[in-house]
Amino acid sequence: MRKMNSAGTATFFAAAMVVAGFLFAGQLTAQNARIKIDIDRQIGEVNKNIYGNFVEHLGRCVYGGIYDEGSPLADESGIRLDVLEAAKGLNVPLTRYPGGNFVSNYHWKDGVGPKDERPARMELAWARLESNRFGTNEFIDFARRMGTEPYFAVNLGTGTIEEAQQWVEYCNVKEGPYYAELRKQHGYAEPHNITYWSLGNEMDGFWQMGHLNAEDYSKKAREAAKLMKLTSPEIKLVAAGSSNYRPDADPNEWNATILHELRDVVDYIALHIYVGNVADNYYNYLSTPLVLEERTQIVKGMILKEMAYAQRESDDPIYIAWDEYNVWYRARVGEDMTGERALEEHYNLEDALVIAGFLNAFIRNADVVKMANMAQLVNVIAPIFTSETDMFKQTIYYPLALFANNVFGTALDVAVDCETYDTEEFFIGLAESKTTQEDVPFLDVSATYDDGQVVLCVVNRNKDQAITTDLIAQEGLFDGEYEVYEVNGPDSKAQNDFAKTLVETKSKPALTVKKADKMTYAFPPHSFTMIKGALKN
Question: Are 364 and 411 in contact (CB under 8 A)?
Fold first, then answer.
């Protein structure tokens, strides 16, 4: 299955090696990889919103997750303080709410006003009872405390364009009209000023309540956009792009149609992807971020085509928002799909490496990917997991936190020379089309440059071997101490649990370099590594 086809010939050996001041003892090592960093080869500016997250009324994401009335771990408003603190560690710039499939039968007016007067509703997407005790204003309060910007999705399934307009009025208009005054009656004198609004969710999916074909969705979305922008002209709108990649679907036709029909009115197109290791094939699975990258490039081409004819008020083109992405395959069938404990995936190290690969792909496509939202924040396919009395950080928490707290500035087009492999044919998720990937590099790399500092992010996909790598500055010199952080564990299946942390971020000994255009580092097997320091002219 693995094909060793590097431009350079690799030598494998077990030895004790000192590399740039870092010791790897008795570890099988592959040599001769190179990463070339050129600060003149720029892709685009990294938008902080690619480190976003997602809160949906699904399972225990809201109730029993961020909001837990009566819990000794919650404050008087019902917010779980341990969850809030862990969420702050992710430095989340933007959080999508309230769905997801949930939003296609959600009517926002049910979730405002006195809690004891709100109606309980059948929640049809995920088969649970929705109490509506947590709604618009509760989420705003949580978001402000978390330090994240809200991103709302409107109901374009069973909802009307008038209902969407009224929600914008409630949130964004200071005073005067009915729904602005209603917000003031609910205790919020100042508007919430929500900038980002999604025009529905996964409207291409047959599973979506109120599912529409591309032409009918475009008509409804255009008219909703008209009313919403007349109410609050500064808002940014996100069209529902492809989520259905089943063999009988045509996601490219869907994307092409809505980009053509909505090119003058939307600011983003939302794409969704979930992947998994269904066949328990490590190397196939670690290649799945490349599928996201392929889909990004296809949609980028469609955007470029439509921008040639668009008549937009904004000078910006349409950007891509990967506003749902994650690993999701274990809790995706039967009883795991619905009810109060739905979608409670437990992650391992290889899942964390895939997440790091997704984040690398966002950086490598920083010119067009300007938003991304990991689904979801707590309990439901999430980096944070709770019980009634405790909480722990899942493996996927750690690469996301490293990126979100460190990787900004200009994305660089780095050159990577390392061994590659080919995959077998595989499903990237339970219901996805099959794919194969050729020439998958064992080193998955992104880099950014900001105010004289370079940040290098490297996934070593090799399950068994460290890869000794020359890091080469094409312009300027490495000089000084370089921070090194590593996410790893005893093996690729290592998991965290309550009171058991096998996978986390560890600070490694710093690399010290004096005015050199090259330094060498051995990236351990099944690892994600971040190296951060100066690149001086």
Answer: yes
Active site residue 234: no
The string of pLDDT tens digits covering residues 183-212 is: 999 999 999 999 999 999 999 999 999 999
Active site residue 324: yes
Distance of CA 501 to CAs 378, 391, 398, Å? Answer: 17, 12, 11
Name the residue among 484, 487, 508 with its Cα closest to residue 496: 487
Radius of gyration of the chain measured on its C-alpha atoms:
23
| Residue 37: strand, helix, or coil | strand
Q: Which two tokens stand for residue 320?
A: 């891509």
Distance CA 47, CA 315 (A): 17
**Given the residues 130, 169, 324, 419, the one annotated as active site:** 324
Q: How many CB atoms lie within 10 A of CB 492?
A: 21
Helix, strand counts (H, E) of the chain: 10, 28
pLDDT digits (tens, 9 = 90+) for 273-306: 999 999 999 999 999 999 999 999 999 999 999 9
Cα 150 to Cα 276: distance, rounded to the nearest angstrom: 28
Phi, psi for 236 (deg, rounded to 5): -110, 135
Instruction: Return the bridge partners of 15, or none.
Output: 27
Single out the catalytic residue among 149, 169, 202, 419: 202
CA torsion sign for 42, 323, 197, 298 is positive
Q: Burial level of 510, CB count in 10 A (0-12/13-18/19+)?
A: middle
Torsion of CA 112, 207, 378, 77, to 10 degrees: 10
Both tokens assigned to 424: 């077998």
Query: Which residues 6+ apart lie within 8 Å of 339 measured at CB?
Result: 59, 126, 127, 128
CA 537 – CA 534 distance, rounded (Å): 10
d(CA 472, CA 17) in angstroms, rounded, equals 20
